[in-house]
Amino acid sequence: MECSFLPDHDGLSVMSVAVGSIYLLLQNIVSTVIRVLGYAFMARLVSQGE
Fold first, then answer.
1. Residue range 6-46, pLDDT digits in tens
2. Comparing C-alpha atoms, which of 25, 34, 42 is closest to residue 17?
3. Which of 13, 24, 45, 50 is the most interior residue, by most CB within 10 Å?
4. Largest Cα–Cα distance in the chain?
């Protein structure tokens, strides 16, 4: 039994939409963490240089 509320001919199912949504969420979180760490590292370099 398939749990799909969207038409199959588009290749989109509820599961594929959910997986894509989770992927984008995780990508956003990882990107934000990398930016924060990079910013903290640069701030540390600047403060050590003074």
1. 555 556 788 889 999 999 999 999 999 999 999 999 999 99
2. 25
3. 13
4. 66
- CA pair distance 20, 11, nearest whole angstrom: 13
Name the one residue in this structure whose structure tokens are 């760490």: 37
Q: Where are the beta strands (DSSP E) in the chain?
A: none
Structure tokens that stand for 24 in this block: 């984008």
Please tell me whether the overall predicted TM-score, pTM, comes out greater than 0.70 for this model.
Answer: no
- How far is the C-alpha of 22 from the C-alpha of 34, rounded, in Å? 18
User: Residue 4: what pLDDT?
Assistant: 56
